[in-house]
Amino acid sequence: MARQPMSYKTKNRLEIAAMYLVIAVMTVIIFYPLIWAFGMSLNPGTNLYGASIIPENASFVHYEWLFTSPRSNYLLWYRNTIFVAVSVSLLGTLITSFTAYAFSRYRFRGRTYGLYAFLLLQMFPVLMAMVALYILLNTIGLLDSLTGLILIYIGNTIPMNAFLVKGYIDTLPRELDESAKMDGAGHFRIFFQILLPLTKPILSVVALFNFMNPFMDFILPRIVLRSPENYTLALGLFNFVNDQFSNNFTRFAAGAILIAVPIATVYLFLQKYLISGLASGATKG
Amino acid sequence: MATKNDQETNKNRQDNQNSNHNPTLAMLLSIIPGLGQAYNKRYLKGAAIFVLFAAFAIVMFDFMSDGLQGLFTLGTEERVDDSRVFLSEGILSLIFLTFYLIFYWVNLQDARRDAIKIKNGWQVGGVMAGFKNAWDTAFPYMLVGPGLMFLIFVVLFPLLFMGFLAFTNYNLYNSPPRHLLDWVGFDNFINLFTIAEWRNTFMSVLSWTLVWTFFATTLAIGLAMFLAVLTNDKRLKGKKIIRTIFILPWAVPGFVTIIIFSAMFNDNFGAINTDILQPLFGTSIPWLTDPTWTRIALIMIQTWLGFPFVFALFTGVLQGISSDWYEAADMDGATRMQKFRHITFPHLMFATGPLLITQYTFNFNNFNIIYLFNEGGPAVRGQTAGGTDILISWIYDLTFTNSQYSMAAAISLILGMIVATFAFVQFRRSRSFKEEGTF
């Protein structure tokens, strides 16, 4: 009986050690590919073969190449992506908030059908209709243009986000806008001056999602964009490895790290809001 | 005829009470849009409606009749007519026609409702009141309008186009503008299930899609649950840093990590083989050339990519579980396993159930990882799909590599059915949908 506390203590220690071991193993598994990619980006060669995670003659030539070489479109791609991201973020969020406001606050004829339509249409993956999108953009002359890409992004972000925002507006007390109406405020004033400031938290999540998406999506740009000077970052980087796989991996790694670091930083800082946004979007659907 | 009627009833109306005002007549008059509104003494509104409908009819009539006709024939002259243009104009005409009919119906209903109100003694207000009223009614539609337009042209239209395409014979050998397309009914679907090559490919792709969805998602959820419970332990220090590390794979853009993994798993000079397996075990594994190994690699990578988000969700839930539960369980002498099974697990599932289902649907259509890792490969002899192609990536291959547009569309339709059924069942169960039903 006297040994009981001792063994309990040892057991306790062993358990804690085991937990830290698991965490250590997971940390290695998580960091290994990321550090490996960083190591690759420092290899001066362009080939995977002979490259190592800790290169003997580490250098930043690939980073330099991306920014200074006349043959590099990296900065152009950055500009394109930011242009697309800002447009989608602004327009998409504005239209989303209009739609959500109407569905949440007005009882108009056809409202239920509208909600069903939004629900139904958001279920289908964009990719399913890619042939049609391609042909459609081709017909109206928006193929290989950033405008076409922006329009498709906006169209695809609306249904899902509209529900997210609608769910949020639903939780705001109706007395707010009703009393404003009593005071003679018009529809637009109620929206812009009373509801919009209150919906800021969820709208910023939506805006951020809309902003980040063009940085990470490569498949839609791949279908829509043709000429390298119109590429977005993701597509441009993808083509580094897609054209001749082993030849340009180190360059890809350099370019990828330059976008992964800022994005990951934003995500880690805002994780709480982003995750709760994603979560409420799915449960309140 | 109609105008004469109109005048007569108007005269009657002045002699008699409003009870003589006939809603059915108002509705019938509105067969010519605006006339019923005029009968209701709302002349300005009537005129506006008439002008709008007339303008729409005049402007769109040619386009729509040509479009609908084209949808039927899909073009008549080879090399001159492009069936794809005919198809898309036909679908646009269908959409416009639907709009027209809806507005027409609204116009009829509007005439009827106003007439009923007048019959019950309602006085038609002045022009200003009419404007105010119209503005109030129209406002929500104006708000929804832009979103709906985007939805119709960017989401609905392409989906309809794809749906129609599934019933044509658009493939490599019969492609516009060189050839005309024809309607072939359900031939594509019949071929998919009767021609052995198609059927076998479809079945093997479908079964791998299901296996992939199940394992990739379940493993990620399992790992997330294990780590969430582990890091929730009171005895652990540095929780904040540990959690940040565990969320990292979610924060790094997916396409970047998948391409990195694809290089690491490279058979000849990837780090997994050259740096880990060779030195430690003296062997290397054909990650990208053997279908089974590719599948295993894919599931492992998706677990790496997928667990952090679920981990974050679980951690949030765990922090919210009141410690009373566990204290009560300790009193009763419950083992750790019992506490997990009866307290932790039910809490996690209750709070995150619907979200976990979306994880499954996400992986079901997870095109990025399949395509970026190995483009669905390695190739399999005798079929158009690679060894790791899931339905959506197979559709992509059929479209952009093999030019089997119609078959790709047919499979897309089947995929759409699966997704829609699944999602619909889920949404019916979700909370807000039930609330929605009470309005």
TrEMBL record, chain A:
GO annotation, cellular component aspect: plasma membrane
GO MF term list: ABC-type maltose transporter activity
Classification via Pfam families: BPD_transp_1 (PF00528)
PROSITE patterns tied to this protein: ABC_TM1
Transmembrane segments: 20-39, 82-103, 115-137, 149-169, 190-212, 249-270
Methyltransferase listed as a keyword: no
Record localization: Cell membrane
SUPFAM superfamilies reported for this sequence: MetI-like
Highest taxon listed in the record's lineage: Bacteria
Keyword Cell membrane in annotation: yes
Membrane topology label: Multi-pass membrane protein
Residue span(s) of domain ABC transmembrane type-1: 78-270
Keywords: Cell membrane, Membrane, Sugar transport, Transmembrane, Transmembrane helix, Transport
An example Gene Ontology biological process: maltodextrin transmembrane transport
The protein's name in its UniProt record: Carbohydrate ABC transporter membrane protein 2, CUT1 family
Organism: Pelagirhabdus alkalitolerans
Automatic annotation (TrEMBL), chain B:
Alphabetic keyword roster: Cell membrane, Membrane, Sugar transport, Transmembrane, Transmembrane helix, Transport
CDD domains reported in the protein's UniProt record: TM_PBP2 (cd06261)
Cellular component terms (Gene Ontology): maltose transport complex
Compartments in which it is found: Cell membrane
Gene Ontology biological process: maltodextrin transmembrane transport
Ranges of residues in domain ABC transmembrane type-1: 206-426
Residues that span the membrane, as ranges: 43-64, 85-106, 148-168, 210-230, 242-265, 296-321, 342-362, 405-425
Biased composition (Basic and acidic residues): 1-14
Membrane-topology descriptor: Multi-pass membrane protein
Region feature (Disordered): 1-21
Gene3D superfamilies recorded: MalF N-terminal region-like, MetI-like
A molecular function (GO) term: ABC-type maltose transporter activity
The keyword Chaperone is annotated on this UniProt entry: no
Function: Part of the ABC transporter complex MalEFGK involved in maltose/maltodextrin import. Probably responsible for the translocation of the substrate across the membrane.
Name of the protein this chain belongs to: Maltose/maltodextrin transport system permease protein
Organism annotation: Pelagirhabdus alkalitolerans
